[in-house]
Specification:
Elements lengths: L3 E5 L6 H14 L4 E4 L16 H11 L4 E7 L6 H14 L4 E5 L18 H20 L2 E5 L4 E6 L12 E4 L3 H10 L2 E4 L11 H22 L7 E5 L13 H12 L5 E5 L11 H14 L2
Helix pairs in contact: 1-2, 2-3, 3-4, 4-5, 5-6
Length: 300
C-alpha cells in the first residue's frame, strides 16, 4: 500500500497573516490531510497567539477543495460529546465530507486545568474516553440520542441531517494502552500514535521502531478480539515525538529512509509538522516542500 503523507498546521497565526496561506499551500503540495491540534494552548506556545481548532478547520474547509481536514487530537479535557457532535456535523457539511476526527484521552497540559478542575489521572482520562467515544459514535450516527452515563449525559440530542460521510465521519483513535487500543479496534477507522514517550529523551531510533512494532502488534490483537481485520484500520504516525525528532526533515533522503522504515511496520500515513521557526518544529521550508512533492512517489 502506498504511504500517505499529511501535515499538522498549528493554529498560532492569524488567518490573514499566514494562517490561510499555509492551508492553501498544503493542498497545493499534495498533502493527503491537513490536521491541527485541538488544544486551548500548547506547551511553549502558551504565551503567544493560539486559535481554536474548529473555527480554524472551518476556515480551512472554505479555503481548500480536496485535501482532507482533521484534528490531532480532540480529547475530553474540555469537550463534551453533545456540543462537539454538533460542531463536527456542521464542519463535515461545510467541508463537503472531508473531515476526520482524531481523538484521544488527552494529557496533563493546560487543557486539563483550564476549566478549573484538577488534572485527571491516566485512569480517569481512560475512563472518560471509554464513555466519550461510544457516545460520540451514536451522536454522529443517529438522529436523536438520549444517554445517562458516569461522566456524560444526552437528552434527546438531535443531530439532523447527520454527517455527509456515512454512517458518520471517520475516527482516528490515538492510543497505546490496552483500553484505548480496544476503542480503536471497535470504533476507529484509523489508529494514531506518536511512539513511546519514554524513549523521547534518551532512546534511539532503533528502540523506537521496536516499540512501534510492539504497538502495532497489540493493535492487531485488539482487532482480532473485536472481530476486525487490523488491515481495515489506517495506521498513522504523528512525527516529532520519537528519538529521531526533527532529523527526518533535514533532507529528502533522510525522510524517505525514516518513512520507509515505518512503512515496513504497517503504517499507512506519516504526519509531519508544518515548519515553525524558533520552535521544536523548525525546519527548512524548501526541504519540507521537496519532501511533500517528491517523497510520496518514492514510497509508493
Amino acid at each position: 500500500m502506498s504511504l500517505r503523507l499529511s501535515t499538522v498546521i498549528l493554529p498560532y497565526r492569524r488567518w490573514h497573516e499566514g494562517g490561510r496561506s499555509a492551508w492553501t499551500r498544503a493542498e497545493q503540495l499534495g498533502f493527503h490531510t491537513g490536521y491541527t491540534y485541538d488544544h486551548l494552548s500548547w506547551r511553549t506556545f502558551r504565551d503567544g497567539p493560539w486559535f481554536g481548532a474548529v473555527p480554524t478547520l472551518t476556515a480551512a474547509a472554505t479555503a481548500t477543495a480536496s485535501m482532507r481536514l482533521g484534528t490531532l487530537v480532540t480529547s475530553p479535557n474540555f469537550r463534551h460529546p453533545v456540543t462537539l457532535a454538533k460542531e463536527l456535523i456542521s464542519l463535515d457539511d461545510i467541508s463537503g465530507g472531508r473531515l476526520t476526527l482524531g481523538i484521544g484521552a488527552g494529557g496533563t497540559g493546560f487543557d486539563a486545568t483550564a476549566l478549573g478542575q484538577e488534572p485527571w489521572t491516566p485512569r480517569e482520562r481512560a475512563d472518560r474516553l471509554a464513555e466519550f467515544v461510544p457516545l460520540l459514535d451514536r451522536l454522529l450516527s443517529e438522529d436523536s440520542v438520549s444517554y445517562e452515563g458516569d461522566f456524560y449525559s444526552a437528552h434527546e440530542a438531535r443531530n439532523i441531517p447527520g454527517c455527509v460521510q456515512r454512517p458518520r465521519l471517520p475516527f482516528a483513535v490515538a492510543a497505546t494502552g490496552p483500553r484505548g487500543l480496544r476503542l480503536a479496534a471497535r470504533y476507529g477507522q484509523a489508529w494514531v500514535t506518536t511512539g513511546d514517550p519514554k524513549l523521547f529523551e534518551n532512546g534511539t531510533p532503533e528502540q523506537s521502531v521496536q516499540a512501534l512494532r510492539g504497538q502495532v502488534e497489540k493493535l492487531g490483537a485488539a482487532c482480532e478480539a473485536a472481530g476486525r481485520e487490523v488491515s481495515a484500520l489506517d495506521k498513522t504516525l504523528l512525527t516529532g515525538f520519537t528519538p529521531d525528532r526533527g532529523r527526518p526533515l533535514e533532507s529528502l533522503d533522510a525522510f524517505v529512509d525514516f518513512a520507509g522504515r515505518h512503512q515496513e511496520l504497517g503504517f499507512t500515513e506519516i504526519v509531519i509538522h508544518w515548519p515553525i521557526p524558533d520552535s521544536d518544529f523548525a525546519a527548512d521550508e524548501k526541504v519540507f516542500e521537496r519532501i511533500a512533492l517528491e517523497a510520496p512517489a518514492q514510497l509508493a
